[in-house]
Amino acid sequence: MTTAFAFEEIRPVVEAMADLMCCHGFSPEEDGLIRTHLMARGFDLELIRSAEDWCEKAQSFGSVVDLLSMFVPTGVGVRVSNPLERIAVSDQMLSAVEKCRDRGIITVDMAERLLEGSRAMDTRDWDDEDVRAFFVDACSVNSSPSAQTKLERALLGDFRDYYC
């Protein structure tokens, strides 16, 4: 029997679990390995078990990886905006890419590559639809058609398929 903890007490453990599963590729079935990594990060076993119980109960709302994706820590970087971004990509598209990056739909590295690619190709004479199509094509090379559709909607500002 695990001790009952308030969610705010187990939240750091849930976030660490999210990091391991969503960012480092651990599978939910590797619970022993995940537990070992969490203990190595300094979390108490009772706290870990309580977080596991919370995830198990919350799993009834969807897959545990989808659930934990809400808790993935946002990347902190030293990104410096370049005025050339404003020339190569419209403010609307730049904003959409930033929102996708903030929500974890695309990685920081992918956002940088997309923006750099649009500058290198000189997309100034492209309309937003052409730039959006380029971004979707570049991001979804190995993804399913449904993932591609979700990304297209996200680049249009519709984030209902993604947790905020």
Describe this structure in words.
This protein has 2 domains: 7-69, no CATH class; 83-155, no CATH class. It contains 9 helices and no strands. Helix 6 (91-102) packs antiparallel against helix 7 (108-120). The protein is elongated, with a radius of gyration of 19 Å. It has 164 residues and is an all-alpha fold.
State the order of secondary-structure elements, H for helix, E for strand. Answer: HHHHHHHHH
Number of helices: 9
- Taken as a percent bin, the fraction of beta residues is under 5%
Average pLDDT figure: 76
How is this structure best summarized?
The chain has helices at 7-23, 31-40, 45-58, 64-69, 83-88, 91-102, 108-120, 128-139, 145-155.
List descriptors.
mainly alpha; elongated; single chain; 164 residues; 2 domains
Helix and strand arrangement:
Elements: H1 7-23, H2 31-40, H3 45-58, H4 64-69, H5 83-88, H6 91-102, H7 108-120, H8 128-139, H9 145-155
Helix pairs in contact: 1-3, 6-7, 8-9
